[in-house]
Specification:
This protein is α/β, with parallel strands linked by helices. The chain is built from five helices and eight strands, in the order βαβαββαββαββα. It has a six-stranded parallel beta sheet with strand order 2-5-1-6-7-8, with helices on both faces. Strands 3-4 form a two-stranded antiparallel ribbon. The protein is globular. The mean pLDDT is about 90.
Length: about 170
């Protein structure tokens, strides 16, 4: 399984990029899973309060699993460590696992920059494969100057998918 983090600060384009890459992978016939860090503080949005799932959780359930229509929804009232989250996200044995966020965790990374200030902290991250944004800064790894250069970004990604980097057993 190929694994790649897409990291950056809020509103840097992470979700837009990951969504586009999911479509690209599916067009190539690959299976893909996404693990996202909810970095907005607090819990992610939950089901409406009137759903059975919300009632179970409100009454103390530690986890709920709902299945139907070819889909499964699982909510666990505990946040496992990163290794366990990756294991859960890869349960279906996807060809590719895209990870949005988790910048401090080990793994190959694409770094999105909004402005040069972002680079002051993100330059310290390990395992940077590509940096996108801020043409005015000098970077010691592949650098695409703007997130608007989608063809160049996608070309890099397709080449990375076909290469040996990023293979991981979970």
């Amino acid at each position: 399984m190929k694994t790649l983090h897409v990291v950056g600060y809020k509103n840097s384009g992470k979700t837009t990029l990951v969504a586009r890459w999911v479509r690209l992978l599916k067009e190539k016939g690959l299976s893909v899973a996404v693990l996202k860090h909810h970095g907005h503080g607090g819990k992610p949005d939950m089901s409406e309060a009137s759903t059975d799932t919300s009632q179970f959780l409100a009454n103390g359930a530690d986890a709920t699993l709902v299945a139907g229509g070819g889909t499964v929804q699982f909510i666990w009232n505990e946040e496992p460590d990163f290794a366990r989250l990756k294991e859960m996200a890869s349960m279906g044995n996807p060809d590719v696992l895209l990870i949005e966020g988790y910048k401090r965790e080990t793994g190959n990374k694409v770094v999105l920059l909004r402005d040069p200030e972002d680079w002051h902290t993100l330059c310290k991250l390990e395992d940077k494969l590509l940096v996108i944004g801020c043409p005015e800064i000098e970077i010691d790894c592949p650098h695409i100057h703007s997130r608007e250069e989608t063809a160049q970004i996608d070309e890099w990604f397709v080449k990375w998918i076909g290469g040996g980097d990023g293979d991981e057993t979970i």
